[in-house]
Predict the structure.
Amino acid sequence: MSTNDTELFDLVIRNVRTEEGGPLLDIAVSGGRIRKMWQSLRCEAVETHDGEGAFAFAGFVDSHIHLDKACILDRCTICEGTLPEAVLQTARAKAGFETEDVYARAARVVEKAISHGTVRMRTFVEIDPRAGFRSFEAIKRIKADYAFAIDIEICAFAQEGLTNEPATLQMLDAALTDGADLVGGCPYTDPDPERHIDMIFELAVKHDVAVDFHLDFDLDPRHTDLPEVIEATLRHGWQGRVSIGHVTNLSAMAPSKVEAIGGRLARAGIALTVLPATDLFLNGRGRDKLVPRGVAPAHRLARHGVVTSIATNNVMNPFTPFGDASLVRMANLYANVAQLSRDEDVEQVFDMVTANAARQLGVTHGLTEGAPATIVLLEAGGARAAVREVARVLTGWKDGVKSFDNGRTQIFRRTPMS
Ligand SMILES: [Zn+2]
C-alpha cells in the first residue's frame, strides 16, 4: 500500500554503510534492482531488513577456483608438498572422478562460498582423456542449480599439456561449443610452452572467448613464459580478455623489474590473479629456513595500472590442503603476507576480491541506483575494517531476493552475582 508521500518497494535494507565512516543509508529495491539509496528513506516495502550499521557492498568475486578437484584430500598422499607432486596426485585421483562425485564436492564448496558472500566466480574445469567430460557435465549442473545465489563462469582448462596430448585440444574445442565460457592453459606442464600458448589463443579466437593461463609457478626469475603471452595478446587484439594466475617468480625479482613488467602487463591489458593459499603452500619447499613467501606482489603491479585480484584457487587437495572459499579471509592473508598496513593499501586489497576481480571478469560491480540488487552485509565498519578484522559475513541478496543468512552474533551476558 502506498500513500501520497510514500512509495512501495519489494525490499528495503535500512541502516547500512556503503563507505567507511560514511552515513547510515537505506537501500530500496524493486524488480531485482536498486531503486534508491539515501538516508532515512520515506518508503514502505513488502520486506524490511534492519542492517544495524553493517557494511553493505556488492559481494565478493572469486576470479580463480577449481571446483572439480576440491575436497579430495582423502584420495591423495602428500609427501613433498611440491607442485609436481600435486599435479601427479590430482591426475591419478581425477581418473576416478564420477559426475555425481564432482557435483557433490563442488556443491559443498559453492555453498561455503555463498555463505561467505561470494556472488560470482570463475571456475576452471579440467577436460582431458582422464577426466573426460564428467567434471564438465557436473559443473554445468552446478552453475544452473546455484544461479539463484551466484554467477559461475566455466573455464575449459588444460592442466596437463596440449602438445603432448592432442585429444585434449579437441575436447576443449567441443566444450567451448557446449557451454564453456572461456579457455584456460598451463604452459609450465607442457613440453612446448610456446606452442601451448598459441594453441590456447587459437581456441579463444575461434570461439571468441577470454583466456586464462596458469603461469610461471616457480621462484626462478630468469625463466618466464610471460613474453609469449604478452606477444600473443597483442597479436590477436585480446587486450582486456587475458588473465594470468600465480606468476610467483615475480616475488623473486627486484622491485624495478616488477615495475617494468607491470607497465607491460597494463599496456597489454592482461590481468593478474594471486592465489596466496596455494602459492604459500607449494613454494620454497627446497628451503629449511627463511622460507620465501612466493606470492606475487599484486599491490605493486596494481600501482602500475594492472587489474589484479586475489582468489581461492584450491580447497582441500594436494595444491592446498586447507580452505573454506572465504575471500575476506584470503584478502586478509594476502595483506598480512604482503606486509601492508596503510589504509589505501588495505582498501586496494578489498578491491582485489570485489570490484577489480569483477573488472577482470568483464562485469560491472557496485551498489548504485539502477544496478542489480545483489547486496552482501558484513559485520564491519567498512572495506578496510573488513580486511583487517576478517569480518563476519552476515546476509546477502541476489537480484533482490535473499540467498543466505548467517545470523547476527549474539552475546549472552550473565548478570553478576551479588
Ligand atoms: Zn589454479
Summary: The domain at 60-360 is CATH 3.20.20.140 (TIM Barrel). Residues 99-115 form the longest helix (17 residues). The chain has a mean pLDDT of 96. The pocket of zinc ion is lined by residues 64, 66, 124, 214, 245, 313 (CB under 6 Å).
